[in-house]
């Protein structure tokens, strides 16, 4: 199957084991790792809705209530009472988003269950709140908090005189919030690897606070002395780390690569994959890397709609961070805690490491990098091998 933007996606055809990973800092007391569907549903801190509840809350799933559509199904706007969570009249109570699963077989059910498995337990300001679910006959639905600003994708790529482009400050705020969400997942006692980090999965509240959504492809990270989890390739082409595409070896650094791609999208206003761009520019990472390695050419990747909103020092620091994240060697990528620290520094106008009055010096081999590892493939003048990005072969996914 092909997504609505024409991108091919790959989904595991084998049975994905579901388990729960607790996290330091989580407000939830976590039971032993559930594996069966019954255990997952019983251990989740969620409301079990009937189909009629959600039918009433969404005004019978009316077409004018649709918030979005994807491979998973359609998302509808609805209303429920604040305390009882019973369906309420339109315009009263709490606004919710109801995702209705298409009847597309076992794979869709597994993703529905994975969403409950993770978001039914994990709580963090930068993860979307899952309120409840419906499991009735062949109906599979999920009920979330409503995110008024929609997805990051809808804001960053919109063009036209009617749309106000996101400012530099808001883009950096969203980047930091999304990074904190990933860092939270990676700091779990058993790491949670998100596996499908992209702009369409970053939702925004009324104040542009970022929250990660869609955990259908999330997976527990490696445990013990294991360095990775071996899986079939899953996710979205253009965002997936090259070593994961070629080997199926999944680590938290796979998410870091995806974050680097999204950061490039945020800085440039360009999509990760866009065949409408001129030849040689279809793949954002391949097009941007030559500019990222030269501080005097960094400005060429920047979204022209941001002109005058940022200092060159901060633009170069952000570009360097993106370059670290998309390093071909996953060992040289920063971890998400380091990414969060770097983005926090970018937001701090008094940070002495950023001199807005002078040119920001490029990172050189052996130079301290504020805790970030240096990506050897980005050294100016160094020979870089052309990397082939294997294209996934099938797709089953939702937006």
TrEMBL record:
Region (Disordered): 1-41, 347-372
Residue ranges constituting the Protein kinase domain according to the UniProt record: 61-354
Residues that, per the record, bind ATP: 100
Listed EC numbers: 2.7.11.1
Compositionally biased residues, Low complexity: 19-29
Signal sequence extent: none
GO biological process: defense response
InterPro entries in UniProt: Kinase-like_dom_sf, Plant_Ser_Thr_Prot_Kinase, Prot_kinase_dom, Protein_kinase_ATP_BS, Ser-Thr/Tyr_kinase_cat_dom, Ser/Thr_kinase_AS
GO MF entries: ATP binding; protein serine/threonine kinase activity
Subcellular location: Cell membrane
Keywords linked to the UniProt accession: ATP-binding, Cell membrane, Kinase, Membrane, Nucleotide-binding, Plant defense, Serine/threonine-protein kinase, Transferase
Basic and acidic residues composition-biased segments: 347-362
One Gene Ontology CC term in the entry: plasma membrane
PANTHER family for the chain: OS01G0588500 PROTEIN-RELATED
Family to which this protein belongs: Belongs to the protein kinase superfamily.
Protein name per UniProt: non-specific serine/threonine protein kinase
């Amino acid at each position: 199957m092909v997504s609505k933007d024409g991108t091919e996606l790959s989904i595991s055809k084998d049975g994905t084991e579901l388990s729960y990973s607790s996290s330091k800092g989580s407000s939830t007391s976590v039971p032993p790792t559930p594996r069966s569907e019954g255990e997952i549903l019983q251990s989740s801190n969620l409301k079990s809705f009937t189909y009629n509840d959600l039918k009433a809350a969404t005004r019978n799933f009316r077409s004018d209530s649709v918030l979005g559509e994807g491979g998973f199904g359609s998302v509808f706007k609805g209303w429920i009472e604040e305390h009882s969570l019973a369906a309420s009249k339109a315009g009263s109570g709490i606004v919710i988003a109801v995702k209705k699963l298409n009847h597309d077989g076992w794979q869709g059910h597994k993703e529905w269950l994975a969403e409950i498995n993770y978001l039914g337990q994990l709580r963090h300001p930068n993860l979307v709140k899952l309120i409840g679910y419906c499991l009735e006959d062949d109906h599979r639905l999920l009920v979330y908090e409503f995110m008024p600003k929609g997805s990051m994708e809808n804001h960053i790529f919109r063009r036209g005189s009617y749309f106000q482009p996101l400012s530099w400050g808001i883009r950096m705020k969203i980047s930091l919030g999304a990074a904190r969400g990933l860092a939270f997942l990676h700091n779990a006692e058993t790491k949670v690897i998100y596996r499908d980090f992209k702009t369409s999965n970053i939702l925004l509240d009324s104040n542009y606070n970022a929250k990660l959504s869609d955990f259908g492809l999330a997976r527990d990270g490696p445990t013990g002395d294991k360095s990775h989890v071996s899986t079939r390739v899953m996710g979205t082409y253009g965002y997936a780390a090259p070593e994961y595409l070629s080997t199926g070896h999944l680590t938290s650094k796979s998410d870091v690569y995806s974050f680097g791609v999204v950061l490039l999208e945020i800085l440039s206003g360009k999509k990760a994959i866009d065949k409408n761009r001129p030849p040689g520019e279809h793949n954002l990472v391949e097009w941007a890397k030559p500019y990222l390695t030269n501080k005097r050419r960094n400005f060429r990747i920047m979204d022209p709609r941001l002109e005058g909103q940022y200092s060159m020092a901060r633009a170069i620091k952000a570009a360097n961070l993106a370059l670290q994240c998309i390093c071909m060697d996953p060992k040289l990528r920063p971890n998400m805690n380091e990414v969060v620290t770097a983005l926090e520094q970018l937001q701090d106008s008094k940070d002495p490491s950023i001199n807005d009055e002078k040119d920001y010096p490029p990172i050189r081999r052996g130079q301290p990098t504020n805790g970030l590892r240096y990506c050897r493939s980005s050294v100016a003048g160094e020979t870089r091998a052309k990397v082939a990005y294997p294209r996934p072969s099938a797709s089953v996914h939702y937006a």
